[in-house]
Amino acid sequence: MAKKLPLKQRYAALTRDVHWEPSYVDPEKVFPYTSFEGIKIHDWSKWEDPFRLTVDAYHKYQAEKDKRLYAVLDGFAQSQGHLTLSDARYLNAMKLFIQGVTPLEYAAHRHFAFLARYLNGAGPRFAALCQSIDELRHTQTEIHTLSAYNKYYPGFHNWNRMHDRVWYLSVPKSFFDDAISAGPFEFLIAISFSFEYLLTNLLFVPFMSGASFNGDLPSMTFGFSAQSDESRHMTLGLEAIKFLLEQDEGNVPIIQDWIDKWFWRGYRVAALVAAMTDYMLPKKFMSWKEAFELYFEEQMLGGLFPDLAFYGIKPPRHVEHAIGEKDILSHQVYWVLYQFSFAASFTTTVPEPYELDWLSSQYPDTFDRFYRPLWDKARKIQENGGRFFFKGLPQLCQTCQIPMAFTEPGDPTTICQRHTVYNGERFDFCSDGCQWVFEREPEKYVQAWMPVHQIYQGNCGGPSVPEVLAWYGIQEGDNGEYLGSVEHTNWQRWHATAPVGS
What we know:
Layout: H1 7-14, H2 27-30, H3 55-78, H4 91-100, H5 102-118, H6 122-150, H7 159-165, H8 170-180, H9 184-195, H10 201-204, H11 206-213, H12 217-247, H13 251-279, H14 288-308, H15 319-324, H16 329-339, E1 347-348, H17 353-362, H18 367-383, E2 407-408, E3 411-415, E4 418-422, E5 425-429, H19 432-440, H20 442-445, H21 451-456, H22 465-472, E6 480-481, H23 486-497
Helix pairs in contact: 3-6, 3-12, 4-6, 4-7, 5-6, 5-8, 6-12, 9-12, 9-13, 11-12, 13-16
GO molecular function: monooxygenase activity
EC number: 1.14.13.227
Keywords: Monooxygenase, Oxidoreductase
């Protein structure tokens, strides 16, 4: 009778032992992408799988989560669950989510599938395969969840087309285009470590808890379903960085450089999450400042980086600037979105008095002094029958592609503007961090697809706002002010016709 293998040996037999060394083809031709970044790997077998899952066990585990998610989706749809949301204004956050986050999930799926073919070691290849499937699953569940709202409210259509064209969506898109066009090891640090481990909790924990708080049980369910995968992805990121650091001392300065770059790139993308968290949830759950202090300062800076110091890794460059912005970041970003929502596929509104008071309590040192006066002015204009829009084109940061709205470190009253001259051309930046990222590899960022520049060059449908919006795929009623919008009208109409008790 055959002896039953111990669990660890059985796992190795089903995964590692199916790997073989090529004998009739040069290994460098089989795996051509892992040698040009300067990273040295001496023993791929030293990769430790954080989750010992076979393909069979992995799919059974994910299938159970899908069953629970789709049961929630069915129940929500059948019970007219969209009427139980806190307010239709909440849906604008989810429009930004499906336009800005869901396409990133699909991009991650594609590139992790690439790594599952081209990483030399059997362990990291299988880990990349599982993450690729995870990311595709996230894409599908997010589309299925949010498509229910598309039946009743505008702005959820054309999201993939918008991701490629709309100005504010160039921020997340440029981040992933940057990562995908890097080498395989830099991609692992950019996504698996800097994005997944350092920053993903800021989206999938506090914001998805806020979704539940606002009556959006489907989004909360897919968010927490994804977060259980993100935990595995974060563990993959930590294993990846420790594996690379332990393989060769020469890897340390290369990885430190990547951490410095990708922390700042990811942090600037998270600026959109800051605005969503503080301003786009009618019922507040946790402020951006609270989430940043808990998930980044305490858990990452206070917990992770002291461990990585053993390998010679230091906290990211410019991290002190990120900490210094936690009191002002969300206000600056949402003020930009409010001014330019005539060219966005969601609506914005002046915060209600109770929201202003909540923001005052969360940001006692900055909000009343610098930002409440802006909203008081906007409300007066609204009460007089107007609406404050900035009907022009803003200057963009060449690196992160966010309009130049951020302020000097320590001075919330002065716009921060840096510039570099490269090959006789001037390039402008919103911060020291973005300038440093550009100057580190300028040949890459001079090629950036800058939405404002493309409009001026006539590449976005035409010279007028209606022509640009048509090229974006934005329809009438998708954008502008919430009051009187299609979503506001539909919200009132659906509630007026709903059965008593709905």
